[in-house]
Amino acid sequence: PRKGQDVLVRALARIPALPWSCLCAGSLTHAPEFAVSVLELARALDLEDRIDFPGELGAPELDTLYHSASIFVLATHYEGYGMVLAEALVRGLPVVSTHGGAVPDTVPSEAGVLVPPGDEQSLAAALHDLLSGPEGDARRAELAKGASRHGRSLPTWADAARAFERAVLEFSSDE
Predict the structure, then answer these.
(1) 152, 97, 101: which is closest to 126 by C-alpha?
(2) Is residue 57 a contact partner of residue 25, using CB atoms and an 8 Å limit?
(3) Among 55, 57, 78, 86, which residue has the least CB neighbours within 10 Å?
(4) CA 95, CA 38: separation in Å to the nearest integer?
(5) Could you tell me what percent of the chain has a pLDDT over 70?
């Protein structure tokens, strides 16, 4: 529920005339009542043909999806860091997300558009702007360049492991 898929579905329902499709990857069993409610919401809003809910996916499937996507959307209410946002940025995807938690620290303005958590109208407006005509295409391209640039500056797992090792060694030597 913290990821805001219900907010995303309601936001997408506000832009039915635009040519979009959405793949919403993630567990359908972690919070089953919430998952069912989101599936029912998509059905009630007549979006079943436009939103796919494949469940959890493995790394190869996710990598394929990242490379075929034009925008990454996370309507989260709160993120402590947002690993999935970093994964999108590394792949050069423009991000649409929220100001929830550490998201603004992960997604700079040159790489994405952030809206208030839970605000389906603002989320719909951001998506509308990025999906509408040549202006939307140009803005997505601009954000994609920013995402690629920022993604290259993010630490790799090896960088993070070395930093962790240094921190542990410094702590150990202080004792």
Answers:
(1) 97
(2) yes
(3) 55
(4) 22
(5) 99
Task: Locate 36 and state its tokens.
Answer: 């069912």
Q: Which residue has the tokens 């059905």?
A: 43
- Residue 96 burial class via C-beta count within 10 angstroms: exposed 0-12, middle 13-18, buried 19 and up: buried
Residue with tokens 């140009």: 138
Strands of the sheet containing 112-115, edge to edge, are 72-73, 95-98, 112-115
Question: Cβ neighbours of residue 114 under 8 Å, at least 6 residues apart?
Answer: 96, 97, 98, 99, 103, 104, 107
Instruction: Return the biggest CA–CA distance within the chain.
Output: 64
The pTM for the full model equals: 0.91
DSSP H or E segment with residue 72: strand 72-73
**What sign does the dihedral 123-125-126-128 (CA atoms) show?**
positive
**Spatial distance between the Cα atoms of 99 and 78, rounded to a whole number of angstroms:** 8
Give CA–CA dist 137/94, Å, rounded: 11
User: DSSP letters of 1-65?
Assistant: -TT-HHHHHHHHHT-TTS---EEEES-SSSSHHHHHHHHHHHHHTT-TTTEEEEES--HHHHHHH
